[in-house]
Amino acid sequence: MIENNSNGASYITKIHYLCKSNKTLPMSEEQTYINFDEYIRQGEPQKKERAEAWRVAIGLQAVDGLKTSEYLQQTARRNIEGEITIDEARELVKEYYIKKTAHDADDADQEEADRVSSNISKLLQTDAFTYSVAGLAAIHRAIFEGVFKHAGRFREYDISKKEWVLRGDSVLYGRWQDLRMALEYDLDQERQFDYTRLNEDQMVEHLAKFVSGLWQIHPFCEGNTRTTAIFTIKYLRSQGFSVNNDMFERHSWYFRNALVRANYRNLNKGINYEPLFLIRFFRNLLLGENNTLKNRYMMIDPPEEWKMPESEQLPEQLPEQLPEQVRDLLHTNNPLIIELLKVIGYDEYSVSQLMERTGLKHRPNFIEYHLNPAIADGYVRLLYPDKPNHPRQKYLLTVKGLALYNALVPQQTS
Q1: What is this structure's pTM?
Q2: Domains of the chain, first to last
Q3: Of 184, 268, 276, 291, which is least packed with CB atoms within 10 Å of its CB?
Q4: Quick check: 371 pLDDT over 90?
């Protein structure tokens, strides 16, 4: 049910729909999470990687108003510490609910949150990623394995979802008959998109638009936002970005509402698509900015005290106006990487061609100090990533690399 008081500000009771409906609620209270920063500060690479995966996995449950159990928190900590593997953690969570004898009203939601969190954590602890419609379906299947009978299957009916941020209205989602065709089209358009000569503002806006369009199709019965988030993280990683994972931990509910606003239009009420909120999320995610992210600013026709202050309605600051430390997620202080990026530019080269263009003679040193760091930091990718020793292997810039190259090298206007 949805409650609305006299001033229209209270759309805060839980909306719970299953399969043909949805479940969403504005999160007004925070769950107590593991102190992930503790592990990240320690600097142990494996613990940090596992902590980052669990941080996203647990935080994303907020998009459907779910909270994980204390048992899941303890199990996650054991995996982060290296006491158990991620597969052992998933099996422990599964067994916990099979053997659980005392049940309460929240058990079903908590079991979903726990099992989905452990599934997401496994996905994020592996590098495997397939950029395709089948790959997207595989992510949904992996996330909701053992939770939904329809895991990995596209819906076979049209849907609408009452959204808190829209005061009970719904985004217009894709027709069920067109789901596969729409997904194939969007993925193909992104595959062919030319990122050359885009500055970082244009790059972020395009990526936000791509993710927004993918989410709007809403191919699954349930779990679309969590699936979109994991697909996005893995896609951005494949494009060279080291994704700021705490954004999905702390702002997952904002992420969903921003997707809603980016895809909602009601011309009868004078409301058009509003991508600003999603772009701000992506600027924080990819550029390390600190834009204010508040759910109440996105509400349609909000009460006066919920409206965005005029000072925050100003255009985003240009990158050159931002403190240098804010831009660390995109930029590098390694002069050898910067030199290599300038050499590659919009082209692709073999190792021997790159050595010739940089004037370097010693192949092992070039690979160790120039090429490998540029690949590891996400600026350079292989033309044939699945076949490192391909006889025609060449190297080119990732989307992240192109954004930095365009910032380093002034572009000539024709």
Answers
A1: 0.82
A2: 30-126 (no CATH), 154-329 (1.10.3290), 335-408 (1.10.10.10)
A3: 268
A4: yes
